[in-house]
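Ticket opened by: R.M.
Priority: normal
Category: complex prediction / small molecule

The reporter submitted a protein together with iron/sulfur cluster and asked that the result be attached to this ticket for the collaborator who will pick it up next week. Submitted input follows.
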Amino acid sequence: MPKTIIEKLWDSHVVSEKEGAPALLYIDLHLVHEVTSPQAFAGLRTRGLKVRRPDLTFATTDHSTPTTPKNLPIIDPIAAAQVKQLETNAAEFGIPLYGFHSDKQGIVHVIGPENGLTQPGMTVVCGDSHTATHGAFGALAFGIGTSEVEMVLATQCLPQRKSKTFEVRVDGTLRPGVAAKDIILALCAKVGIGGGTGSVFEYRGSAISALSMEERMTVCNMSIEAGARAGLVAPDDATFEYLAGRKYSPQGAAWDAAVARWKTLPTDEGATYDQSVTIDASTLEPMITFGTNPGMGMAISGAVPDPANVADPIERESLRKALEYMALTPGKPLAGQPIDVVFVGSCTNSRISDLRAAASVLKGRKVNSQVRMMVVPGSQPIKRQAEAEGLDRIFRDAGAEWREAGCSMCIAMNGDQLTPGQYSVSTSNRNFEGRQGKGGRTFLASPQTAAASAIMGRVTDVRTLLG
Amino acid sequence: MIKFTPFESQIVPMPMDNIDTDQIIPARFLKTISKDGLGDQLFCDWRYDAAGTPKPDFILNQDWAKQCQILVAGDNFGCGSSREHAPWALTQYGFRAVVSTSFADIFKSNALKNSLVPVVVDSATHQKLMALPRDAKVALDLAAQTLTLPDGTAIQFPVDAFSKYLLLEGVDELGYILQQDDAIKAYEAGRASTLNTLAA
Ligand code: SF4
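Result attached by the on-call engineer:
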């Protein structure tokens, strides 16, 4: 029977399947960070267990680390203790760690692919819901809770129920000024924040094939924002090209064997999905969110929706409360809304191509004097690459801050945050109330839209600045 | 883990869709390295004002709500991050069940591992629950998979058999996996690794 890549990945990782119990799934790569792991390591100690496969486990610090220069200590004592705890745990349990002072440190979902750790055909987990990022390589990658982190550390396995298969078909060519981020924001707006619950997305179609690996990561990253457990793209030549020669990629004969195996992964002709949705890339506009979840998004030329037009009472109340929190007027366009902060970064949009895209808009221009713009690369290697290309100069000359790598204002745990009432245009993935700082208000958008908005000091359609 | 037993409680209604984990427990409380002390921070930004004083109109700050063990919330409860701090905060406050028309996947999985039962009901039942008078009590029986309303109507809710067994018996899932060591070893023996060795 023809199978989807999702089913192939599942079938090849089932360790055991017993009547009345979920299947036991083998995990090929476990990524660990400081925030969701301390209680799991504590659990191992209590039970006297070891890490079963330290060779398939990899740690970094990213969530609570400051993005100020590295020669400064971590000022927040609780964050410092958490980072220290991960160092202790990694040393004690024999896990490789790209720690705070490593020249390879970065956001967990950035460094996996960057080092060739993430590969096609793998199962990848991490105590972080944006683990789906790794799906860009044709891996089944999903976020887990801390109890599950402990299970994987101890056994390299997880009891799992099979998810439904959900085809997201995106055909057509993106128009100038429209980015991969706009594809995924459009999907979130179309199916809603719970639309993919219980499912794994497979992104396919000509618009997806045309995306670079970095763009595919942006799309897969936000699968969870449409409710899906995971999202992936079948591997192709772009995937192999990206992985060739990376630190942990197979080499020599092992590489050829791996590529041959990876080529068998794509969905078979005639395979069917439990659900499908289609998006026409050629009609997409730059997208922006107006509300307090990533599904509350629209084309940047659109107007803020009116709760009065929503029939369902709870839905209406949710929209009303969102607009009240955002202090936006129903029926008014969002373009032109003054903003205070622009954040370019996060595991969604902090890779070199994202920085290039933002820099290309900013080049020769200035950040509006009312706006603070922060650019936070996803990893130390990306930071160095950007500096080699002179992107840091473009950002600095424009008046933006050029920071050290980390999650930063995506989650606002490290001191980088909005103050109450401030508006940001952010390339991150969540606009929940308070996500970027208590009382802060977030508009999610692409790096291009973020840069254009920084220049104008208000929400701006980047196409108005394209020459 | 303690065995999950039937109980009766008033409910706390929160008629909002898509209540995300950043509302349940804001990220700034995730810098802890223990599981404790999160109950006071549950729904922190809705519950306290800028000075940290409880807002009197927020439902969890009302005296009658403090003993409640069942939260009834809108659709897609627990969306957002994978933080298990969310069910830890809810159970430390005293909740033993959350009722909604649907739950986000990771939250649901995390809740079940922490003796917090996610109860999915249809929208008619949901509306009935939301409309209950404040002092009305609802009974939850996991073994029977029923939520019994004050008028005696017993509503069946789905729970997967495995999670139900773990909760009722107080068995922990890691222990269950550890018993399957032979199967794991057999799988590992046949597994092709393409990682250019991480082994130290
Ligand atoms: S950048 Fe944001 S979403 Fe990504 S891993 Fe860090 S906190 Fe999570």
